[in-house]
Amino acid sequence: MGYILDESSMQKVLDALKKDYIIYAPKRKEGEGMYSDTDCIRYEVVDKVAEIEFFEKSNYSFKEVLLPISQTLYYFTEDEVKEAEPERKKGAVIFLRSCDLHGVKRLDQMYLQNGFVDYYYKRLREAVKFVVIGCGKSYDNCFCVSMGTNVPEDFDLALYPGEGGYHLESRWDEITSIVGQLEEKEIRIPFVEENDVKVKIPNNLSIDIIKSSMWEEYNSRCINCGRCNFVCPTCTCFSMQDIFYTDNGKAGERRRVHASCMVDGYTEVAGGGSYRRKNGERMRFKVLHKVYDYKKRNGYHMCVGCGRCDDVCPEYISFSNCINKLEDAMKEVSNNG
Amino acid sequence: MVRNEYTPFLSEILQVKKHTDIEYTFRMAFSGEVKPGQFFEVSIPKFGEAPISVSGIGEGYAELTIRKVGKVTNEIFERYVGDKLFLRGPYGNGFKVEDYKGKELVIIAGGTGVSPVRGVIEYFNEHIDELKSLHVVAGFKTPGQILFLEDFAKWKQNMKIILTVDCAEDDTACHVGLVTEYIPKLELQDKTNAAAIVVGPPAMMRYSINGLLKEGFQEENVWISHERKMCCGIGKCGHCKIDDTYVCLDGPVFLYTKGKNLID
Ligand SMILES: Cc1cc2nc3c(=O)[nH]c(=O)nc-3n(C[C@H](O)[C@H](O)[C@H](O)COP(=O)(O)OP(=O)(O)OC[C@H]3O[C@@H](n4cnc5c(N)ncnc54)[C@H](O)[C@@H]3O)c2cc1C
Ligand code: SF4
Ligand code: SF4
Ligand code: FES
């Protein structure tokens, strides 16, 4: 069912939602971008439709809503632990793009399926509704079509500010009942069918690719800052961190914080031992996780082709370029026997 | 609601056994299912968590043999009988004694690598007729660093024990040399069907496995245990992943046919 809403009706929908949900959406932060005079678009709580950035890709993904950058798991004293309260008591409505909605499936896979169910993730994941924002065009570095993530699957609402107002497709009864008095319209929320960037993941990709010389380039180019991981909607790693309060040395809290496989210390064990010391090896580990081994385990690729890792890399390292080198690299390693 | 795996439970230290200055076995109060080769996350508020293998299992307790090497383990060594530690787990797959029943079994362990297999040895010490034979080759750096000395003395009745040290300072009852030197000397009836478990530092595992394969052992009869950095122990944090494998969930015990393909 489709409707076209003017700004005030759209705001009414939002206001209705705000009773039971906190609304998270991409918001433009002027002058806060990577370089001077650039903006940063990141997720925040929004009140007004006008605050939402509909026309550009966000620099950071929605994942921080479900997986806070730093999340307190529990408070402790020396002989007691007390589970932390949930970050929010209400449900959440998340505005996001098609690639990101596919990203949710990957987070669910890791946090609800892979072994144990993650209590803290599940707690924030419950009562979450998704509003997918249409993509009128493909943005810089996007390759969702190659990854098969350009068209969304399970959304509650789809929205696009198009001709004559906000085009809204509702699969959510509550909303349908709010907008239901409006006349139903023939609408089509746009999703891209072609990107400038295309990737091809070779079918014969195997772990032999480790032996390729292609990774060496990244030893010097990559500065292991880890930004590519932090912006990625499908990167899920974390490390534990204990904080204690200085005024009472006996009490504190345990947190988990986002971690990056590109950054020093990720594999470090007691006595200083570590794996993948070279940045090229780390690049290889990351790339293969995104387009090889996750699929071996779960049946579909982890990377959703959002291109944010390319957007953010200060060294202009392109992940999609790297994927496109895999085919030749496979030839290289098979020729070497 | 699902269980919160991250919040640990308090467990009392029932007994502390000192092996060396930096290696103690802590007997922790625990009643529940646990297998040798599995591990607990030992958690000390303010200091963090460390994955530690189960080195002994008994009625109402699980033992942890800990080497003092850093932030968390140093702090554990400040605790004594009657004190408590936070634990969560057990995690990981562990060894299945069924895999070895009816076979000739060789266990090769180096240093603290004895901990994860101690439960297996204990089991077969009690049920020695479930195996055709059992050989244990355990290597330590010096006689002073031998762990579980009393156990070895006890086990000697039921199985063949080869205790070896890299170098002896004085005359001791044990052999001198690397564990690998003793592999060709193993007296077995049928090496192609014998099973082996190899646990220890990476280089020791590599050389020992090569030695076993040279002697005719089959890759599908060799089990190993891997160690990796772990922050969660439950398949979430990503640190222990190698290729498509999570050491904390799918391991730490692997059949060599699988383990050999895990390249970091
Ligand atoms: C499955 C498994 C079983 C283990 N069994 C034993 C055992 O029975 N006895 C024993 O003494 N040690 C065992 N270890 C090693 C033990 O976990 C480390 O020595 C311990 O984590 C060191 O912590 P620390 O804070 O004292 O040292 P630090 O060097 O201060 O630790 C720094 C950080 O690195 C992490 N870390 C360091 N080394 C390791 C490691 N090898 N594995 C995983 N994380 C590590 C710690 O979690 C910590 O956050 C085992 C490790 C694994 C993975
Ligand atoms: S953002 Fe670029 S430089 Fe930084 S770790 Fe990632 S690939 Fe390396
Ligand atoms: S790897 Fe890069 S392109 Fe793929 S999902 Fe992550 S940030 Fe997006
Ligand atoms: S230890 Fe966290 S995923 Fe294995």
From TrEMBL, chain A:
PROSITE patterns on file: 4FE4S_FER_1, 4FE4S_FER_2
GO molecular function, one term: iron-sulfur cluster binding
Classification via NCBIfam families: sulfite_red_A
Name recorded for this polypeptide: Anaerobic sulfite reductase subunit A
Organism: Anaerocolumna cellulosilytica
From TrEMBL, chain B:
InterPro entries found in the cross-reference section: Cyt_c3_hydrogenase_gsu, Dihydroorotate_DH_Fe-S-bd, FAD-bd_FR_type, FNR_nucleotide-bd, OxRdtase_FAD/NAD-bd, PyrK_electron_transfer, Riboflavin_synthase-like_b-brl, Sulphite_reductase_B
MF-aspect GO terms: 2 iron, 2 sulfur cluster binding; flavin adenine dinucleotide binding; metal ion binding; oxidoreductase activity
Cofactor: [2Fe-2S] cluster
Positions that bind [2Fe-2S] cluster: 232, 237, 240, 248
Keyword tags: 2Fe-2S, Iron, Iron-sulfur, Metal-binding
Classification via CDD domains: sulfite_reductase_like
Name of the protein in its database record: Anaerobic sulfite reductase subunit B
Natural source organism: Anaerocolumna cellulosilytica
Gene, per the UniProt record: asrB
